[in-house]
Amino acid sequence: MAKRDVKKVVLAYSGGLDTSVILKWLQVTYGCEVVTFTADLGQGEELEPARAKAQMAGVKQIFIEDVQEEFVRDFVFPMFRANALYEGLYLLGTSIARPLIAKRQIEIAHQVGADAVAHGATGKGNDQVRFELSYNALDPAIKVIAPWREWELNSRTALIDFAEKHQIPIAKDKRGEAPFSVDANLLHISAEGKVLEDPWEEAPDYVYSRTVDPEKAPDKAEYVEVEFLKGDAVAVNGQKLSPAALLARLNELGGKHGIGRLDLLENRFVGMKSRGIYETPGGTILHAAHRGIEQVTLDRGAAHLKDELMPRYAELIYNGFWFAPEREMLQALIDKSQEHVEGTVRLKLYKGSVNVVGRKSPKSLYSLAHVTFEEDSVYDQFDAQGFIRLNALRLKLLKRRG
């Protein structure tokens, strides 16, 4: 791509060192107008300083938007209906945020007449793939700029030198090497790199910020009730809450009891293994609660089919295919399964663990009359004899063949 071809670019901008350098680099290298977009995903940081930094850099069109409700309602909740876990453990907190950011970048690009979008993801990670697959799915004609794959600023020192040369403000704690890299939103916070790069070494306590050490959590268990309607959580302890407010409330409860910590050595889409430390307190509670309500409302065939499809669905999100037709097809199937997933789940929170201890639903498929060990009049135990004989027939024939 000839650099002179770009006239206006929408940059996913956090206001941190990397994206502040990228902003100036775009202006210097491409000679283009830069529009910044900063998404409030519930990361818990003050975002107005990003506006001041963008203004200082001469940016005329600055977008700072609170997208927390959209994030939870349209991205997190659909994913949780699937009970999605990447490699059986990871609740996909970073992965699920990228398509929303990309979507808003494209919408803003159309609004302001920009011909390009840019992101700050490195050439080693998954996020570059997630951003760019989303961009291309939403606007095949948009130009994409990935500075980390183009520039020669290949170290923290080089970034700081560039920032000082162009009078870009640098927070004092950024002048040295950061101990680890952090990504945060309302669903989770993650840390990777530096002190975490040796997978044999236990992560130091200071890496964790959203959850108390389970060993230091309250000595008394706490019970919480989560109410569901059509597969989505709608209330906590009887209080109706919006999607974002509900997740925030579960985060408070989970963080207090040290719930949702994960030390994972995962397989990146780009081919390498990496170690991440994840904290997903509210999401961990929500995942357990959703499985609990499905236990009592989902038919066995539907439940087992969902479990078979879940790894594929989770991998699609992890790899950046949120807007791909196969993810949308799977979502339609998953959403169909949730039509009668409603009721209340009671969970016990204690020192890092969350356990389902009760569930009830007006759409329950649980029948005490059929399952009781006491005398009943609805189930003839003799029927099981023919059922077993038919299922054993092929095993007998195989054995006789020798």
Annotation keywords:
402 residues; Rossmann fold; 12 helices; 14 strands; Argininosuccinate synthetase, chain A, domain 2; alpha/beta; five-stranded parallel β-sheet
Characterise this structure.
This protein has 402 residues and is α/β, with parallel strands linked by helices. The protein folds into 3 domains: 3-67 and 94-177, HUPs (Rossmann fold); 182-360, Argininosuccinate synthetase, chain A, domain 2; 372-401, no CATH class. It is built from 12 helices and 14 strands. The protein has a 5-stranded parallel β-sheet with strand order 3-2-1-4-5, sandwiched between helices. Helix 3 (68-81) packs across helix 7. It starts with 7 loop residues before the first strand and ends with a helix.
CATH class group of the largest domain: Alpha Beta
Question: How much helix, percentage-wise, in residues?
Answer: 40-55%
Mean pLDDT: 93
* First-to-last CA distance: 67 Å
Low-confidence runs: none
CATH topology of the largest domain: Argininosuccinate synthetase, chain A, domain 2
What is the CA-based Rg, rounded? 25 Å
Return the structural class. alpha/beta
The number of distinct β-strands equals: 14
**Broad shape:** elongated
Numbering strands along the chain, what is their spatial order in the largest sheet? 3-2-1-4-5
Helix-strand sequence: EHEHEHHEHEHEEEEEHEEHHHEEHH
In CATH, the architecture of the largest domain is: Alpha-Beta Complex
CATH homology superfamily name of the largest domain: Argininosuccinate synthetase, chain A, domain 2
- How many separate domains make up the residues? 3
Strand content: 15-25%
Q: Tell me about the largest β-sheet.
A: 5 strands, parallel
> What's the number of helices?
12
